[in-house]
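Field reference: sequence -> structure
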Amino acid sequence: MTEISIYQFVKEKLVTHGVENTEDGALTLQDRYLFSLFVDLERAVRNSSFDATQSAVQKIENYLVSIEKRQIMAFAYLYLKFSEFTPALIEADEYLQNGRVRKTKEFLRQISDEEMLIGLWATVKYDQEGKRLLGAVHATS
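Structure field:
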């Protein structure tokens, strides 16, 4: 079985998130430097490094700000939020008699605490900013 290259993997994942559907989104594939930053993000994710992942996201943001396209950050947050580091299934909270709450989350595979942190951080960032930025991407197209 042949494994696809990291470049093809990143392209396919970005396309899955709809980058080809808008002019701003298409820039992630057309701008070679921007695309290379997404490849660096994938490398950080594959190394399961929270610090490297945050650093890669910051580099993407810095570049997008420099070209006045910060709204494209929506795709960086989408890229991380929809990954194996976020739960595939979240069950309803279970309220226990002692006042505690049990939260049950199922993942596609065993993940480390650092991988779980990456997924949680990505979810928070997408919920805080990504949804709004994605709306801006679609509004400009």
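Note: Residues 113-139 form the longest helix (27 residues).
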